[in-house]
C-alpha cells in the first residue's frame, strides 16, 4: 500500500486524522476497546505529524463502538438497509460491521468532501456495496441517491463543526425525507463549544477548528418534541473504557445534573413513518 502525506487535508477535514490517530492507537493495544484492522492500516499508510493532536486517548474508539452497536442492532433487524455515513472521513465502520456479519446485504453511502473521498479511494478497498459521494453533507443532493425504506444515517464527528441553524436544519430535513429511518450523531457540551470558539489548543502545534454547535444529553432528547417527524430520541451511553473513561461511564454519575450537563453525548433519533 502506498504511503500518503496527510498534509493534503486541512481545516475540518484534517480532524479525521485526529480521530484516526486515537482509534488506530487504541486498536493496536492488546487491551484496546476496539478491534479495527483497517484503521491501523490507514494510520500506518498516512505520513503525518499525528502527535500534534496531543497524546492519544480512548474517546474516539469508544464513540465508534457506540455507533457500531446501534448500527449492528438495526442491520440485524433490517439486513438490506441503507446506511448513510455523512462526513465519513477515515472511519472504517463498514469493515467492522462486515466482520460482525451484518453487512452482507446493505448499501453503504459514504459521503465526504472530494479530498477525503480521494484519500479513501486510494487507501481503502473497493466494494460494490459502497456508494461513494464526494460532496458536502449539507449538499442535500445526496438524499436523491439513497434508496430503500430502511435508512440509518450517521453523523459521527460532524454536527459540532456546523453552525447551529445548519446542524438543526440537516436533522430536520433528514426527518422529513426518510420517514421510518434513524439518525445518530454525537454532541459536545456547551462549555466545550465555547472553549473551541476561543481557540482550543491540542498542542503547541495544533488548534482545533471552532465547534459552534453543542447540545447536552437532555437537549438531544428534547428534539423529539421540537422537530417535526422525530418520533423518539434516545441518549446512547458511551461504553466503559479504561481508567477515567470507565469511571465516567459509571451509571450513577449520570444522575448528577452537573455531570450530565458537561459530558459528551450521543443521540439516536427515530423518525416517524
Automatic annotation (TrEMBL):
One of its GO terms (biological process) is methylation. GO terms for molecular function: methyltransferase activity. Gene3D superfamilies: Vaccinia Virus protein VP39. It comes from Mycolicibacterium agri. This is Methyltransferase. InterPro entries: Ppm1/Ppm2/Tcmp (IPR007213), SAM-dependent_MTases_sf (IPR029063), TcmP-like (IPR016874). Pfam families: LCM. Keywords: Methyltransferase, Transferase. The keyword Methyltransferase applies. The keyword Mitochondrion does not apply.
Amino acid at each position: 500500500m502506498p504511503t500518503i502525506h496527510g498534509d493534503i487535508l486541512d481545516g475540518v477535514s484534517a480532524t479525521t486524522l485526529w480521530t484516526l490517530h486515537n482509534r488506530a492507537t487504541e486498536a493496536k493495544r492488546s487491551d484496546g476497546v476496539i478491534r479495527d484492522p483497517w484503521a491501523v492500516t490507514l494510520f500506518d499508510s498516512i505520513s503525518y505529524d499525528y502527535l500534534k493532536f496531543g497524546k492519544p486517548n480512548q474517546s474516539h474508539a469508544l464513540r465508534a463502538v457506540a455507533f457500531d452497536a446501534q448500527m449492528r442492532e438495526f442491520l440485524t433487524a433490517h439486513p438490506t438497509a441503507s446506511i448513510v455515513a455523512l462526513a465519513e472521513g477515515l472511519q472504517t465502520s463498514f469493515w467492522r460491521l462486515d466482520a460482525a456479519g451484518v453487512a452482507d446485504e446493505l448499501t453503504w453511502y459514504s459521503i465526504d468532501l472530494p479530498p477525503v473521498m480521494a484519500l479513501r479511494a486510494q487507501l481503502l478497498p473497493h466494494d460494490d456495496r459502497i456508494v461513494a459521494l464526494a460532496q458536502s453533507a449539507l449538499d442535500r443532493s445526496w438524499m436523491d441517491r439513497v434508496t430503500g425504506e430502511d435508512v440509518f444515517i450517521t453523523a459521527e464527528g460532524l454536527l459540532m463543526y456546523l453552525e447551529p441553524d445548519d446542524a438543526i436544519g440537516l436533522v430536520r430535513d433528514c426527518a422529513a425525507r426518510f420517514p421510518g429511518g434513524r439518525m445518530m450523531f454525537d454532541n459536545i457540551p456547551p462549555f466545550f463549544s465555547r472553549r473551541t470558539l476561543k481557540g482550543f489548543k491540542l498542542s503547541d502545534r495544533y488548534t482545533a477548528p471552532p465547534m459552534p454547535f453543542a447540545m447536552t444529553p437532555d437537549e438531544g432528547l428534547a428534539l423529539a418534541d421540537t422537530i417535526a417527524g422525530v418520533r423518539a430520541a434516545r441518549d446512547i451511553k458511551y461504553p466503559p473504557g479504561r481508567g477515567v473513561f470507565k469511571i465516567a461511564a459509571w451509571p450513577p454519575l449520570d444522575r448528577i445534573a452537573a455531570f450530565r450537563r458537561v459530558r459528551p453525548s450521543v443521540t439516536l433519533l427515530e423518525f416517524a413513518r
